[in-house]
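dumping this here before i forget
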Amino acid sequence: MITVGMLAKIRRMHFRDHLPLREISRQTGLSRNTIRQWLRQPEMKEPAYPARNSASILDPYKDQLITWIKSDSHRPKRDRRTGKVLFQLLQAQGYPGGYGRVALFIRRWREEEAAAPHRHAYVPMRFAPGEAFQFDWSCEYATIGGIRRRLEVAHIKLAHSRVFLVVAYPLQSHEMLFDAHARAFAAFGGVPRRGIYDNMKTAVDKVGRGKERTVNARFQAMCGHYLFEPEFCNRAAGWEKGIVEKNVQDRRRQLWAGVTARHWPSLQELNTWLASECRAAWAGMRHPDCPELTLASVLDDEQPHLMPAPKPFDGYIEQAVRVSPTALVHYQRNRYSVPAEHAHHVISLRVYPWEIVLVADNREIARHARRFERHQTVYDWRHYIGVVQRKPGALRNGAPFDDMPEALQILQRHLLRHEGGDRVMAQVLAAVASQGLEAVLVAVELALESGNISGEHVLNVVARLQSPALPPTSITSHLQLNEEPQANVQRYDHLRQTTVEVDHVD
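structure:
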């Protein structure tokens, strides 16, 4: 196969140097017939040869391999199968060749698809300071509390300065969405005039024609609180919020690598670390439109154009629940206790990202840390004090009382050894409701230290601790001293010298 360089050399040797064909053949190693054939061409042309269609051992498996590659192209990058995995699948179907041929075919197929004309061009976008922010969710994984968990990660990014905040949540729900906005606006130092979203279910109840959207009422309430206007992208038009879309990809490659490399005690500690890393990135990253400036410096210029951030939106989700006979309410397959006097009543349950608040008659009656595992029961033993007043025997096996402070548990174990001890313990717990937990704990600890462990002793100490101190009494007298007393013992020595000793006769 002759190359362009060889053809040019042949032409120079013949037309310029006037060498005979024999000499040209000797120097180039080509046959005289080949040289003669190319010299007969009227002009210099690049040699072209027909493509060789030789059979390959991969040919019977190409259709299946292309099907796998296309199906993987619709998955997230982290879920796509590698070339080695596809090679192993082909081997299971009988492919006898090596991995190199499969890897070469995959690479060439992807290159051809990337160069295909179906890839679109886009118009660069520019945003004024304080004009807009973009929001998006991504799914990531991290090890929290020794368990690998799926997380829903919120990405909020200012369209002008390009500063961003990343917050991880266990769920993609309304209360999480509201919390992410509150954190972002606090970090940015203000609120832009527009928010750009895709058609996520936490914001859009129904997508209509064109720009018609049925926006969720609770989401609208949040927008009205912060005074920004929501704007939703067209269907399958993620490029309309391409700034935050790119942020998702960049943070997955850069920021999340540090997350997966560590084990986190809690989700709160992870979010604290994410916030600090985001701020560090602001100071180190260059703005794409102004490479001489960092994101933090551009944010300083943008902040005067942002609307002032009000107090955080009270972004809870509320629903009515009925209290069970055991003074428990059910939410997402978990149970939370309320004061026993509300049993069988319908109360309001308010869901926050990290807390569950129970409200009755517009008054908070209980607050618990939210559990995201299933089939968990969260007790507050003080909710059941009124029950044990009527049923003191329930103290012996009452599940809520396993969470009492250690001092009360020690007192309970001692009292229950004696007859009527459950009733005495119920009286001590009643003092918690009337006198406060701290006073009762101090009284119990004093009783345990003294060795006089009894309910009467504890209640007596509680009463003394709660009794008001007597005011100091002042004594008024009209008597006056002519000579102020002095602390001088020498006066007594003077009396011994002047006193006449008298013998006493019995």
